[in-house]
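Narrative of activities, Objective 1.

The group set out to show that a structural description can be obtained from nothing but a protein's sequence at a throughput compatible with the screening campaign. Below is one input-output pair from the validation batch, recorded exactly as produced.
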Amino acid sequence: MAGLIFLLIVVSCALAAPWVTRYPPTKIQSGQTRAAPSREHILGGDVAGRDIWSRVVYGGRVSLSVGLVAVSISIAIALILGSLSGYYGGAVDMIIMRITDIMMVFPSLILIMTVVAVLGPSIYNVMAVIGFIGWTSSARLVRGQILSVREWDFVMAARCLGVQDQRIMFRHILPHVLGPLLVAATFGVASAILTEAGLSFLGLGVLPPTPSWGNMLNGAQSIFILERMWWIWLPPGLAILLTVLAINFVGDGLRDALDPHMSLD
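Output recorded for this entry:
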């Protein structure tokens, strides 16, 4: 519940960014370069004189958007491929699972960095690449769930009655798969946020002046800033840490709530 409450606060601030900030996140103000926190700028100014509080809030929009869009893409792909593989089996299962195995051989971060470097850094490319590369584990999860559910009595009864495969899949099988898939999607959002932050830190993700928690950390790499100007790197770092931690807590809670074995215990 603590993770859920914190996550709701983060989402609310991101949605209400124009009303909870006083300055545009890209506005450069003279005299605010590396300025310490003050009444007017509660988190100070960055290396270019932009308000850090505004950039942290608007950066939350970027990070959450990347996480949600990327996971939506990957879950859609995993649901389609995992369902076909688990329900039909045979040659279909073999082909899809071998493709999945090939995708899982490559280190995902290296593969994402390579594709983004070829396509060019932008928020849309980051969303698409993370989504199209991160479906493998969820597809295996869906396949495993369907392999189990398709042998249950009510599925066998539906087949004996002549119910079409599409109706059996969407009406009888998929509802039993959505619980574990929702938990996996929650953890996937946290992973996507971390991946975007890493790419932006390396200059392969969201490019300045668009604020992102990752590219905010990119401007705080010098030892001088790390030692003497905590307000430049600590807010975006804490935003990443606490948001990902809160999402993981929510995922744990969903797993406990949706897992019937955990409920029985």
